[in-house]
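Lab manual, section 2.4: Encoding a predicted structure.

Procedure: take the sequence of the chain (102 residues), apply the prediction step described in section 2.3, and record the output as structure tokens. A sample record is shown.
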Amino acid sequence: GGGCGMKDVAYFLGSCLHEDECEQRETQLLGIYFDFLQQAVTALGPDVNFSALKNEWHELYHMAWVDFHRFIKGWTVENWHRDDYSERLKREVLLKLAQGTQ
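Recorded output:
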């Protein structure tokens, strides 16, 4: 679609990998995503400022991850376990929102 892909990325990674693996491989996996995204943007939207797009979307990844964390906690309460990575990101995102930043 034409929207921000970070929610799709966060939901995909959170569905395929354990949280500890997501935390350990976050930089690597987002790097792969942004490499492919840059190729697509270059081919399909050469007027797009990819650097600005990447910076904005990279900041939104943690917000998307926290949204996924919220969804899973509400959907599978009986199977939920505490996850330090998701809880830490939740605190960071909430603090940024309270400060009026992304």
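Check your result against the sample. Residues 71 and 85 are 16 Å apart (CA to CA).
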